[in-house]
Design a protein that fits this description.
about 350 residues, alpha/beta, about 25% strand, globular
Amino acid sequence: METEGKRIVHHAIQKGRCYHGEWEKQKTVWLSWPHNVKEWGEQRLPKIRKFYNDLINIVLDFQDVNLILTSEELLDETKNIPAKDKKHSCKKIVIPNDDIWIRDYGPFFIERYGKKGTLILDFGFNAWGGKFPPWNRDDTVPKEIAFYLGCESESYPLILEGGALEFSGDGLVLTTEECILNKNRNSEITKESIESVIKNAFGVNEVIFLKKGLVNDHTDGHIDNVARFIDKRKVLVARSFNRKNENFDHLIESENILKNWSHPQRGYKLDVIELPLPECNDSSMPYSYANFIFINNGVIVPLYNCQTDEMVLKIFKLLFPERNVIGIDCNVLIEEGGSLHCMTKQESLIH
């Protein structure tokens, strides 16, 4: 792996390409229809499918959805999706896959200035360090989507999940050392080499490493539960106000890293806004309101039937007065270790 990493990093950083901020105009959002009875069980699978149906119909009031199905048999099962009165379209595409978490195994959609069309970046996927086999079909999804869209693609010999990176859309990336340097992903590559691969692949110039993600997050600390950009220089950071919470100390550390950072060339600092962690009775789950998603003219916020839900919705409405703020109960997702951002993948509008 180190040899491959060095081969990539010795290339000059590729300017003129951009992974857009998630708040920018989107073409569609990609989802993967739940199908794995062995994983979900016959009683839980209908619940997760109902969640998908509800979410799809919410999104279709704002923009298109691309829904991948693992087999043609599922076309009949999803025949009543979407509802008939929706403004936008739901395309159903048969692409074999193993699981629903398309944020992590799906493609990165890149704009290259001066060139027409989307470029797809394809990184390796091993189900968060080999925890949840099988994952071989998930690992092929970026190439299959590139083929479906007729896009050029670039493949990189690095295990890298979508939830592990957070982009400003202006040359800055956030990540966590706990995840991205974990030996269960890339055991023989250095921090410097991983950073250089990210800079090269995405055309960015700065990577900010936070130390840790949330306790009990089986992704080994994805950034999308901790810190999220809401514009090019404004970032929400999860914060616990309960000293007994296992995340209390390291989230303060993450907040301080972000507050103390300044751009080495341009000198600007980030506007850091605290986002409370959910105060829920069950502390064994990685509950986070930071796992929200942007859609065109809207923000969808994960809720967990916690006492903090209403307060956080008010925070989002203050932050996004020009957008529709919609809360959706994500308990059926968090029980499997993920939430709203984890099971969606936005495709930016690229000219």
